[in-house]
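Listing S7. Sequence submitted for prediction.
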Amino acid sequence: MNTTTTKNVCGDKWYLNLDKPEEALKFLGFIAIFVIRTLLHHLMKPLGQPYLTTDFSIGLILGNLPKFREAFSGPYSVTLNNIIEFGMICHMFVMGLEMNPSVLLRPPTKDAFIAYTSMTTTFVLAFVTTPFLHYTKTGPYVFSLALSLMASSTGSPILTRVIANLKIRKSDLGKLASAAGVHTDMISTLFYCFGFIFFPTDKPLARPLQRFFRALLMFCLFLAQVTFTSIVSPIFLNWVNNENPEGKPLKGSHLVMSLAFVVLICSFPLWPAESVYNPILSAFTAGLFLPNQGRMSKWIINKINYLLSTVFYPIFFFWVGFIIHMRNFDIGDKMAWAKFFSLLGTVIVGKVTGTVLCGLLLGYHVPETASLGLLLTAKGHFHVYLAALAIRTNRVKNTTGAMIIFVIVLTVIYSPFVVMDIIKRARKRVPVHIMALQWLDPTTELRILIGLHGPHNIGSTLNLMEICHGGREPGSIFYATDMVELTDEIAATLKKGGGGGQSNDSVTVTDRSVAEMRESITAAVNGYGELRNGQGVTVRRMLALSTFMTMAQDVCGLADELMVSIIILPFHKRLNPDGTLDSGNAGFRHVNRKILKNAPCSVGILVDRSFGQTEEAWRPGASMAIAIIFIGGRDDREALAFAAQVARHPVVKLKVIRFLEDKSSQNAQKRSSILNRASVVEQEEEMKLDDECFAEFYERYIAGGGRVSYMEKHLTNSSETFTALKSLDGEYGLVIVGRGGGRASSGLTTGLNDWQQCPELGPIGDVLSGSDFSRNTSMLIIQQQRTRGQLDGLHDDFNIL
């Protein structure tokens, strides 16, 4: 904030005069910019718009309000110009620091080919068309060169931000667009540096010889800056980084020396009096050839980026709005509109043509390369600055310069919509690969992956395999997978080379405890496989040997590769001798939660209290009482599909218990009255799916008079649900429930979440696994696969090219 000072006649002292209203107006103006900026960006966030769009909108409005224009006129405009120039020096320095010039010395990659091709086509097209539209009367061909170069360039920081915000940064197209954008931005800005050397905008000299010697001087200074920065800065910054290791505070003296060194290399080309080299481009060159690795470089990048994004950019666009005097904007100037559409068309056609041609040579799809070309049209702050500078120095008319800025901002506005269209097309191309029991083709094999933590899971695993098969045709494949934590001790015992029965043939585990554990499990499951040999049962051994951080990824990868319909995992708590559950293994709980979140198929969690200790289901005379609780939702429908699998087994006595909400109750009427129309429609669709699924199951397994019995319970609230669950205490050896996903709004489970100890089990599963429930009843909680290829199913590393 600028304030005036007045000299005190009596005491010869200076004091601040804060009584002038324009001083308060400046302060309030900047406060208004920051507040409105935050609010407007929050409103535009669903459209994927970056801060540049928000800042430009606010700056254009506030910069043209008469009161603000009066407050920043005269000497204050000089101060504002100096602030903007210093901010752009910082912006260009950190932009160069984040780039890697060594890519220019390597063989061109695919992103480099796309960058070069799109730049060339756009530059040629722009240089051919712009002279005929007479953008300027002073040096038209030089201006056409600069404008053509700006049209062919890309604002890589803005493009990278848009791609990151919309989460396609890991996709093949996102990586290609980011790399090509950085390449284009680096090349075009270097061309600006060379162009300014040979075509300076300040202090024109009449004699050609003088112009030649000044250009030669600036070129030598440029080379000296590049050479000095490339050779000396790595030595100096490596020393600073070694003296300030990670985890310790930066030494103040080293910080001051580093900043002084940065100022030295940025200002070096400006020292000679004859030099008119641009300080903004000098800062870019210095940043480009500084090492961008190491603690000090990262510290500089983080601090400057924070300063720019929070303070400078809002002020910068206020300055841009101040430069674009809308009162002088001639909306009826047809030639200005012709320049606007011509420049916009040139940028789009040039970029799209170049990327499509290059994409065809590289074997990419045309729609995706066209989208890539549209993304590469995005411009940034430096391009806005150049256009505003052209207006301020009277190289172009106010209306023409404003049109150029509008084109630049428009390329940023439509970029998020291009990304959204890419995501939409990618979702259509990703096949809907359903891996769930509910949609299992009856003519295909049933594939189940069963996890084991140790020998204590053998009994439950064998019983699960037996009841799931049930004489099913065309057969069942069970993948008994040992889930072993990879510790330092176990890692030291690994040997290269195949191990019998292991899923990963590249290593063999020689740790004695692990080997004995695996041998006992292998003997048991192979014995069951031999018993059921020739009856359509296949048992295979797998091993997930990982740390708890990566085990879930390995198990999900196995399930995806083996195309199983469901993963059944042991609960992280084990059974104590007294029948209670212990405190559990936090590592396996983390694994279970991550698998529930990322699994490519349905997931079941088995809370084993007595299921592994009961009589083997394949023994003569064996009997097993199993119940399935059905309330509604996709997880309950998947649980019902699992119950249909076990219902085929002759030893299983299955009972289906359906909890129905009493719609006549006051609670149900009150809840339905507060649901909005969208919620009501969604609830009705879920209930329709529930009824169709249950009717099919009822007709097939219950109405025919088989071994499946049926019971309904009409309840009004969660308290009655809890009581109904307690009434099942001890009646069944296994209770199958859904985790609760997709369940329509129901008062039957409302409030049960308040006491949940294990949210991964869902409200019903958590109640049944509680310490006050039966010690003889085991639970299987099932979650249906979250389908790929739908709205939430597209991976962020998708491939579309």
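Caption to Listing S7: primary sequence and predicted structure tokens for the chain studied. The chain has a mean pLDDT of 83. The chain has 27 helices and 14 strands.
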